[in-house]
Amino acid sequence: MKHNVMLTIASLLSILLMTLHLTSDTVHARVGTPEAGGSTLVAVPILAVWLYGTLVLGERRSGHIIMLVGSLLALVMPVAHVMGAGGVFRGAIARSSPAFLFVWTLHALGVTGMFSLILSVRALWSPQWGQSR
Question: What pTM was estimated for this model as a whole?
Answer without folding.
Answer: 0.82
